[in-house]
Amino acid sequence: MAERILGKTLATVSLSVALASVTVQSSGCCSIPACRNTFSSCGFHLSSNIMSSSNGAKGNSHNKARTSPYPGSKVQRSQVPNEKVGWFVEWQDYNPVEYTAVSVLAGPRWADPQISESNFSPKFNEKDGHIERKSQNGLYEIENGRPRNPAGRTGLIGRGLLGRWGPNHAADPIITRWKRDGSGNKVTHPISGKNILQFVAIKRKDCGEWAIPGGMVDPGEKISATLKREFGEEALNSLQKSGVEKRELEEQLHKLFSQEHLVIYKGYVDDPRNTDNAWMETEAVNYHDETGEIMDNLTLEAGDDAGKVKWVDISDQLQLYASHSHFIKLVAEKRDAHWSEDSETECRGL
């Protein structure tokens, strides 16, 4: 038990170190340091604004993780003001609502048992068999046997719709191409003067919001496999294809996902499903089809959790699910593509 329950000092230091290691430091207007190794190994990450609330910061708190009603229910979270999001801000009267969805309590294979069950002894902050319980943001604290959201209070305890106690790992493939005119030339934005980038977006069935395709990492599954599988299922409807169609689809997906890629973000996601004891983390990876030839051979077709799918022009006008707009902005910056008509916004960063 002593090994599983982390002290506040250790948790604070570990989180600070983790955040410092993933923050991109910009030395000029929209500048991003060049990677030392190959392009595919580069990692560009959000600054620590999403996580800053864990140490009691008053601003930049996670917001979507505090919204009500909780997705798929009528449950209202206890209200958490910005200044009390951080765990190290004393709040003796904090009384969060407890909620775990019936679909999770039913015990599907992707969900943990309740903490109170005698035969359930999860190994938090480490690899627990095939289940990854380590956080991308470093060590998290355990309180009363439950993991504590490293970004701070959400007004709700339990797991909500999430299957795992602690981090629930997902993968988000960001597939991009250049917008081109009828002659095949790249389209330039008339104000910014930069080429316009497009990405494949899906409309989620659960909430109706547009998002990056993606989904949960299965136990023991490699992130690369999750990225390809989820894009095939949600943006190409691979689950409904015949055997021959699946083989043809797999050939094209192999071309797309075996090329050099860019890891945009790893870590905590400001997601409306998050609770004090369960939260979403993701690895967002950009696969760019420079010529557009690979994606020309693939027909977009919504499937699985997606209601619709389409190519979307990238700009600061996008309204996307969870933290997805931040991920898309990072892609635009790295690709030196159009993002905003306001030059000051281009330079301001996240």
UniProtKB/TrEMBL annotation:
Reaction(s) this enzyme catalyzes, per UniProt: ADP-D-ribose + H2O = D-ribose 5-phosphate + AMP + 2 H(+)
Protein name: ADP-ribose pyrophosphatase, mitochondrial
PANTHER family noted in UniProt: ADP-RIBOSE PYROPHOSPHATASE, MITOCHONDRIAL (PTHR13030:SF8), NUDIX HYDROLASE (PTHR13030)
Family: Belongs to the Nudix hydrolase family. NudF subfamily.
Keywords on record: Disulfide bond, Plant defense, Secreted, Signal
Extent of the signal sequence: 1-26
All residue ranges annotated as the Nudix hydrolase domain in the record: 178-334
Its job: Hydrolyzes ADP-ribose (ADPR) to AMP and ribose 5'-phosphate.
Alphabetical list of InterPro entries matching this protein: NUDIX_hydrolase-like_dom_sf, NUDIX_hydrolase_dom, NUDT9, Thionin
Start and end residues of each stretch annotated as Disordered: 54-77, 133-152
Keyword Secreted appears in the UniProt entry: yes
GO cellular component: a single term: mitochondrion
Self-association state and partner proteins as the record states: Monomer. Interacts with GLOD4.
Molecular function terms from GO: ADP-ribose diphosphatase activity
UniProt EC number: 3.6.1.13
Gene that produces this protein: NUDT9
Cellular compartment(s): Secreted
GO biological process: ADP catabolic process; defense response
